[in-house]
């Protein structure tokens, strides 16, 4: 699944909401100061408690952001696709990473150092609007996830997780490149229970699986099951 608004080659930050208030020339300077990095599928970008020394801007691919329990169990918090960013929380407060990040597929990013980002905040006040939107989105997402675990049963959480992964894609059929274990981590259930929910959805004609991919064929039905209509 490719998110709309992927940055163009001549202005790699054009679609990044965080930098929307900057002039194209300023965005170009920011992009020039960033370091390109590539990750293979399954490779870690950073780990929880690592120094928060850079802002990561996803140019291609997908990144999962997750927490790990002392038992080793994972809770997948969300997935970042182009033109999304991650790592902004630790970047601003100077603390360590609050979560880990892993490439779900071959992924290309731009990494902007904390020093360069703070200088940008000082010299380009319009970026503060983008920073506030980014934090607002993060708080809303975490609040929404907490509410889901209180008010929704597991199938409802699975349905809502799939809708989040579909995002703004308006196609009637959307392929989600996320395996069932990762989906279980996001929905907060066991793999077996999530598989049962997917089986029920498949029987109803809402989706089907193709290998490790989930093909969503009835988005309105999933939205209703998730209590979003």
TrEMBL record:
Record-annotated membrane-spanning stretches: none
Source organism superkingdom: Bacteria
Boundaries of every Cyclic nucleotide-binding domain copy: 18-121
A Pfam family: HTH_Crp_2
SMART domains, sorted: cNMP, HTH_CRP
GO molecular function: DNA binding; DNA-binding transcription factor activity
InterPro entries per record: cNMP-bd_CS, cNMP-bd_dom, cNMP-bd_dom_sf, Env_Response_Regulators, HTH_CRP, RmlC-like_jellyroll, WH-like_DNA-bd_sf, WH_DNA-bd_sf
Domain HTH crp-type span(s) in chain numbering: 152-220
One GO cellular component term: cytosol
Keywords: DNA-binding, Transcription, Transcription regulation
Name of this chain's protein: cAMP-binding protein
Protein source organism: Cryptosporangium arvum DSM 44712
């Amino acid at each position: 699944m490719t998110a709309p608004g992927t940055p163009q080659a001549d202005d790699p930050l054009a679609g990044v909401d965080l930098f929307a208030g900057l002039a194209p020339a300023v965005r170009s300077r920011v992009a020039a100061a960033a370091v390109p990095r590539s990750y293979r599928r399954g490779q870690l970008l950073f780990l929880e408690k690592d120094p928060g020394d850079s802002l990561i801007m996803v140019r291609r691919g997908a990144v999962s952001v997750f927490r790990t329990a002392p038992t080793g169990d994972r809770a997948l918090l969300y997935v970042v696709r182009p033109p999304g960013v991650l790592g902004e929380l630790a970047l601003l407060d100077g603390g360590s990473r609050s979560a880990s990040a892993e490439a779900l597929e071959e992924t290309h990013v731009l990494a902007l150092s904390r020093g360069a980002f703070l200088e940008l905040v000082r010299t380009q006040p319009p970026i503060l609007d983008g920073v506030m939107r980014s934090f607002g989105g993060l708080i809303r997402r975490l609040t929404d996830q907490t509410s889901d675990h209180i008010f929704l049963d597991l199938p409802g959480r699975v349905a809502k997780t799939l809708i989040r992964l579909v995002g703004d894609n308006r196609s009637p059929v959307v392929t989600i490149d996320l395996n069932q274990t990762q989906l279980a981590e996001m929905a907060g259930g066991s793999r077996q229970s999530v598989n049962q929910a997917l089986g029920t959805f498949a029987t109803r004609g809402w989706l089907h699986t193709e290998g490790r991919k989930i093909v969503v064929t009835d988005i309105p039905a999933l939205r209703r099951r998730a209590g979003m209509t």
